[in-house]
Design a protein that fits this description.
Blueprint: E1 3-4, E2 7-8, H1 14-24, H2 35-47, E3 65-66, E4 72-76, H3 81-86, H4 93-104, E5 112-116, H5 130-147, E6 151-155, H6 157-164, H7 170-173, E7 178-180, E8 183-188, H8 191-196, H9 201-223
Parallel strand pairs: 4-5, 4-6, 6-8
Antiparallel strand pairs: 1-2, 3-5, 7-8
Helix pairs in contact: 2-5
Length: 226
């Protein structure tokens, strides 16, 4: 059972649980495929998804991007206009700022996997609603299962509430390590919030310094280099 935040797979109705079984390929030869192959199939399935109305209002699905062996995952809320146009996550102004932050803490983009809670752009960049999140979240659950990240960065209020808990407040939890399903989660402000309020840049910089340090330590412990 996967239990992340206030979305719990076992609470969904039986018909939707069957769709999860179909999506995940449990009990089929897909289980014998490598995680890389399963992730590619999951992306192909996601690109054809029309489970919620968001797909009708966007140009394309933005599944995620990164190395298949990435053990550091960054999760935002949903694609913006530039991401919708290009089909890649975090390539707009907020993504460029994020890239500078990662460079400053010496994390290469190739070292991480970056995605969003919902894979289709909400109209006018509004926050996704609970129904949209519920329909799209199984894709993220499966991405987490296949990539097996050591550290997940929850960027913004939507990602924090969804992955940590329904009452989780980004302003209260920002910068404080959380643990879920044996993984380390760091809530921080979304890069777009930094563009609106530059005073948030320093706290986020400090958060990513923490992320870089802990990720290196955990990776070293796992590989025997730490």
């Amino acid at each position: 059972m996967i239990n992340w935040g206030y979305w719990e797979v076992t609470t969904l109705e039986s018909s939707y649980q069957q769709s999860l079984a179909d999506l995940w390929g449990k009990g089929t030869p897909a289980d014998q495929a490598s995680p890389e192959e399963q992730l590619a199939r999951l992306e192909a399935r996601c690109l054809e998804c029309h489970r919620c109305p968001l797909r009708a209002g966007c140009r394309q699905v933005v599944f995620g991007e990164g190395g298949h062996g990435s053990r550091l995952m960054l999760v935002g809320e949903g694609p913006g206009a530039e991401e919708d146009r290009l089909g890649k996550p975090f390539v707009g102004a907020a993504g460029q700022l994020l890239g500078r932050i990662l460079e400053a803490v010496q994390i290469e983009r190739e070292e991480l996997y970056i995605t969003n809670i919902v894979k289709c752009r909400p109209p006018s960049n509004r926050n996704p609603n609970s129904a949209e999140i519920a329909e799209c979240l199984p894709y993220l659950h499966r991405q987490i299962e296949l990539l097996d990240p050591l550290v997940i960065v929850c960027m913004g209020a939507v990602a924090t509430r969804t992955l940590i808990g329904g009452s989780a407040s980004i302003t209260r939890l920002r910068g404080q390590w959380q643990e879920k399903e044996g993984r380390q989660l760091m809530p921080t402000f979304h890069p777009a919030a930094l563009l609106r309020d530059p005073r948030k840049k320093r706290p986020v910089w400090e958060d990513f310094q923490e992320v870089a340090g802990r990720f290196r330590r955990l990776l070293g412990q796992e590989t025997g280099d730490g």
